[in-house]
Design a protein that fits this description.
homodimer, 236 residues, 45% helix, DNA-binding
Chain lengths: 236, 236
DNA sequence: GGCTGCTTGTGAACGTGTGCACGTAGGCGG
DNA sequence: CCGCCTACGTGCACACGTTCACAAGCAGCC
């Protein structure tokens, strides 16, 4: 029976990186590539590469390596990149426009199929050669495009309602750029990119290197900060 | 010596989300918040919230919950958000300009301190009220700003050399938007945001829902695809 | 054809992260 | 002052992901 082979989420997230590395190696006229070389290009270790690739099947040749073209094809197929995936961007503000103008999407098989905004004054504008449409047009747009990916590039307060609209219109893959936690029905994939969160994570580690939090002792923190109640506990 | 409390990476990544949830709850005039409510706002489960917060210290009150103001302060302190972190954006193309114009950074304590580009024709331009400077100015800029976060918004081929320049100039926190794997010296934090990779991950799961890869059997795939051995040449 | 060297594929050990379930501590009403 | 109720803090078991180490398998060569 044709086992669909469960692929761990962590592996899936690395496949696109391998694919890019393979493209580079292909440019360099290499016909085969070892797990070690691929690991170097992808910034991981060789054992991880081999384990990840083994989930796709036994596409390597012992003593030789992986055939670049063949592995590229298999990986593209597994990732669903053998055909284009149209993208609908909701929210034509700063970020939405930048995304629309970013050529990297179309180049990688994700053409901007539509732009949508709630603001009536923006509807009708042409951005990157695409006419901005209203939120009401979403259901028809999605119906006409088939499998589509929705990108939320609205302010935080609008994110959840847009996600609801998208889900209701039949979109089952959503990428959220709004700085808000949103929930979607079962069967809908949601990924998020939160720029401020990334900076805050960097801030955490940077600060640790700089010498830890201000008032590295909890007791001292009580001086700077505000204890919630008369009696505040110490570290433990 | 006060134990610096090791905080798991997964927890660190969630702290900013909690912080945002706390801000919302504070807006709503709530003085205390339970782990359950916080979990709901952050899109995780309550046990995880409690475990995460316990790494910061015992800031809750049993039977009551967490004091919103106090927890906000402690969390901000731990994340290093009690002061601003200036940001230098390298690469003033589409994405770089969008990031510069995105108000969400300054609002959250990450003011754009400088814009840098390798293209001499762009140097001197004013973007978002900031004058674009040349790559040569990086060392002086960093020296004058102290702890700073570097954002790479260049094309992929320039990413590694920019990362080298930043590291050499003393930047120890880097956020990479370029679609390339880059390496940095020990002691430098690197995080990456790759838009195309996110779309490709969504594509993977979308396709699985749509009925799996074309040629769902490996044997069949060899018919559709090209066996590596005799001769190859397609996909391209 | 058989030997050698190289690289894959994978079982097993290890480390990290998650979630349950419950002990525990603090507030509150009587 | 006491007992009840609530929600935190955490030990423990489990799942997931990573890494090591090595047998297996293939190509090349004599």
């Amino acid at each position: 029976m044709t086992e669909p082979r469960r692929i761990p989420e962590a592996t899936v997230a690395r496949l696109p990186v391998y694919l890019r590395a393979l493209a580079e190696e292909s440019e360099a006229k290499a016909t085969t590539i070892s797990s070690e070389r691929l690991a170097e290009l992808a910034g991981v270790n060789a054992a991880k590469v081999r384990k990840d690739l083994s989930y796709l099947g036994s596409y390597g040749t012992r003593g030789v390596g992986y055939d670049v073209e063949y592995l590229t094809f298999q990986m593209s197929r597994e990732l669903g990149l053998t055909h284009d995936w149209p993208v609908i961007i909701v929210g034509v503000g700063n970020l939405g426009q930048a995304l629309a103008n970013y050529g990297g999407f179309r180049d990688r098989g994700f053409p901007i199929a539509a732009l949508v905004d709630a603001d009536p004054t923006k509807v009708g504008d042409i951005v990157h050669g695409v006419r901005v449409q209203g939120l009401d047009d979403l259901p028809d747009l999605v119906a006409g495009l088939g499998s589509v990916i929705g990108i939320i590039a609205t302010p935080a307060h609008a994110a959840q309602s847009v996600a609801d609209l998208l889900s209701h219109a039949g979109v089952t893959s959503i990428l959220n750029f709004a700085p808000a936690v949103i929930s979607v029905p079962d069967g809908v994939s949601l990924r998020k990119v939160d720029l401020a969160v990334e900076l805050q994570i960097l801030s955490f580690y940077q600060q640790r290197r700089d010498g830890g939090p201000v008032g590295d002792d909890t007791a001292k923190a009580r001086v700077t900060g505000l204890p919630p109640a008369p009696a505040a506990g110490a570290t433990g």
